[in-house]
């Protein structure tokens, strides 16, 4: 069942869980996370970054729509970190049901203006809008990008941003970074800031870049008002590691995709199931049906 971001997160906010948003950078990753969500009876957001879409081409969206229309779980197709108004409009035309405009690196008023402009274009056609306030870190080698120094979301201006823009969900910066942290870095979420933001706002909150943060912190964030969590690096790393293992196994004759990829997909599926459980999203799909 294909739904909007607003629809999928409204239930999550009411029932206090987080919808997993998996970055499906290939058909194999897409199928693996869809299998995991169907098995766990979890709603899912299939997140596609503009760079991923450029690589996969627009036809990939039809593949996602086909799966969404032939499953019994709620599925939202989400543009991850749209960098411009033009990218967002293109995604809406392709059939995305949720879009993110990420103008967090711009001055506050410019972030407000472009986010407001996106909302004006998206809402009349039933597409939900996510924006970002504050900045997400970047550990390197990810399509999502980020900044070297995190600027935390200011709880005092969060509701003002929501009121001025009309966005449906807000990505907050509380100490996460895209990618996997180096071994000598001990990431820590500012749950105190999250608590203040949740008290000051009235829409679902989104967490980006939580791949390396301790499970107990992520689980706590879910209980404190985070209703969508993006997962990219975790599912891609296990896929790539298994593929390296297969290719380095000594059999130079292995070349068929249906031989190379199934074990990689199984590793991705395992991680996806772990995240679904961590986000308290198991068996939540039933709450979307009357």
From TrEMBL:
GO molecular function terms listed in the Swiss-Prot or TrEMBL record: aldehyde-lyase activity; zinc ion binding
UniProt cross-references to SUPFAM superfamilies, sorted A to Z: Aldolase
Cofactor: record remark: Binds 2 Zn(2+) ions per subunit. One is catalytic and the other provides a structural contribution.
Names of the cofactor(s): Zn(2+)
InterPro entries: Aldolase_TIM, Class_II_FBP_aldolase, FBA_II
Keyword Zinc tagged: yes
Single biological process term from Gene Ontology: carbohydrate metabolic process
PANTHER family: D-TAGATOSE-1,6-BISPHOSPHATE ALDOLASE, D-TAGATOSE-1,6-BISPHOSPHATE ALDOLASE SUBUNIT GATY-RELATED
Protein name per Swiss-Prot or TrEMBL: Fructose/tagatose bisphosphate aldolase
Native organism: Listeria aquatica FSL S10-1188
Lineage: Bacteria, Bacillati, Bacillota, Bacilli, Bacillales
């Amino acid at each position: 069942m294909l739904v909007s971001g607003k629809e999928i997160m409204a239930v999550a906010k009411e029932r206090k869980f987080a919808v997993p948003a998996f970055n499906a950078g290939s058909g194999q990753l897409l199928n693996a996370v869809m299998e995991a969500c169907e098995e766990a009876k979890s709603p899912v957001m299939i997140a596609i970054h503009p760079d991923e879409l450029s690589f996969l081409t627009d036809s990939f969206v039809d593949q996602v729509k086909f799966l969404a229309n032939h499953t019994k779980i709620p599925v939202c197709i989400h543009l991850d970190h749209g960098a411009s108004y033009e990218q967002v409009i293109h995604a809406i035309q392709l059939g995305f049901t949720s879009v993110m405009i990420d103008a967090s690196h711009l001055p506050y008023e410019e972030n407000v203006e472009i986010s407001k402009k996106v909302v004006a274009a998206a809402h009349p056609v039933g597409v939900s809008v996510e924006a970002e306030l504050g900045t997400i870190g970047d550990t390197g080698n990810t399509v999502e990008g980020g900044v070297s120094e995190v600027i935390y979301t200011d709880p005092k201006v969060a509701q003002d941003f929501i009121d001025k823009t009309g966005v449906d969900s807000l990505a907050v910066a509380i100490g996460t970074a895209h990618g996997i942290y180096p071994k000598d870095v001990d990431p820590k979420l500012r749950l105190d800031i999250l608590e203040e933001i949740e008290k000051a706002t009235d829409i679902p909150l989104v967490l980006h870049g939580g791949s390396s943060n301790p499970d107990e912190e992520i689980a706590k964030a879910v209980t404190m008002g985070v209703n969508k969590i993006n997962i990219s690096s975790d599912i891609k790393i296990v896929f790539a590691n298994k593929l390296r293992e297969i290719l380095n196994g000594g059999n130079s004759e292995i070349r068929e995709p249906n031989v190379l990829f199934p074990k990689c997909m199984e590793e991705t599926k395992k991680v996806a199931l772990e995240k679904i459980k961590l986000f308290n999203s198991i068996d939540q799909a039933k709450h979307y049906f009357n």
